[in-house]
């Protein structure tokens, strides 16, 4: 695997997701990552810390200047717990759980997050505003309802299939409800 290519694909997919998702300072992006899948192997069987570090560091370099927080989902052996900064857990009222990732429980992405975050902790659940799934790790449970798929030009990172999600507020109301600001219904009076 060419690490520079993986970094480039990661940055491109993330940049396109951010353009569509329109996240703002303080929002959370959840990332699921199978470094095994990036290598073209079966999920969870061939973790690579080098690939995990390259991808997570690239994502942090993009998100940090924007003030967007990162949450990195672990594997099923940690019940898909997430690594976040302690400040994010406190701001969002998230319950911190006691577990540390290892290469075969949590995975290379979580280890890389622990290495690159200032004060990382694990939380059990989160409701992120958007998500990036590298290798079909099933991040949907951690993205706010209503989830909207985002199509980017990057459909794979390495050999791993990628899926991108953003969220939007629920549409509510009946037949008179509107979904754009026009309080006096002037558009229909012309």
From TrEMBL:
It comes from the Bacteria. The lineage of its organism: Bacteria, Bacillati, Bacillota, Bacilli, Lactobacillales. Belongs to the UPF0340 family. Gene3D superfamilies: Hypothetical protein TT1679. InterPro entries: Antibiotic_NAT-like (IPR028345), DUF436 (IPR006340). NCBIfam families: TIGR01440 family protein. SUPFAM superfamilies: TTHA0583/YokD-like. This is UPF0340 protein FC31_GL000477.
